[in-house]
Amino acid sequence: MVSSPHEAMHRIFQEYPDLFSGVSEVLGLGFPPPTSVTALPTDLTESRPLERRLDTLLRLDTEDGGSFLLAIEAQGKKDPDKPASWAYYASYLLTKYRLQPMLLVVCQDRATAEWAARPVRFGPPQWTLLTLRPLVAGPHNMPVITTPTEARKDLALTTLSAITHVTHPDIGAILKSVTTVLQDTDPVLANPIIELIAQGMGKHPAAELWRKLVAVDLSFYKSPLSEELREEGQTQRAAEDVLVVLEMRGIDVPDVVRERITGCGDLETLSRWLRRAVTASTAEEVFTDE
Fold first, then answer.
1. Beta strand pairing status for 130-132 and 67-74?
2. Which of 9, 125, 142, 180 is most exposed, with minimal Cβ within 10 Å?
3. Is 278 helix (H, G, I), strand (E, B) or coil?
4. Alpha carbon of 50 to those of 55, 81, 87, 159: distances in Å?
């Protein structure tokens, strides 16, 4: 499983294309729910050897008969080169598809989000040729959803909220509200949310909190993350069994041996060490022939 907030921040719109309607409503805009959505190629490379790729590109057809392109970029930090790339994307998409483009930038960092939201003007000082105004979703404007009642109203928006508020002081309440709702949610709907939030937490401290909540509150699910957590629990118990047998037999267990046993993630190996622990005269003998 890819543990990448960057992936989660744009892939969520592939999983839940109508999420943009909820996001635009939060941001005070009136984009109606789409009647159909088409995922388009993200490769914007021209014949010249210069590769340009969007994170996600969707065509949204609306109930009023209109259509537009939604380009989604996940932005992890300030990048002075990005505005020029985004302006290129917009003009290229308009030229290629003859549909009006909309750019949504998703951020987890408030400073990055506020930087991305600033209008950027292109042209000489005497005359502005083009003004770029991305729509930005981030911790500065996404709702903080901490109750199951609110979370249940729109699970896709709740998922994006959790991802964008990964460093929020109330991230524990945010994640707990999600697992509470997922307890009575169809696994077909719940599993993508479990994985997207796991990706979105990245290497932040909230990632471990999410893993614990999934293990405790959603232990009955069979998502990739929950399966991984079950395997971790099994190997942890197996390692403890090896140490308990050695200690009950009065065998001294040096720190280096203890670390090797507790650091092993293979159940078959731990089972082999457990059998040896029953007869070994020293702790090191459990590793014989390894």
1. unpaired
2. 125
3. coil
4. 16, 15, 16, 35
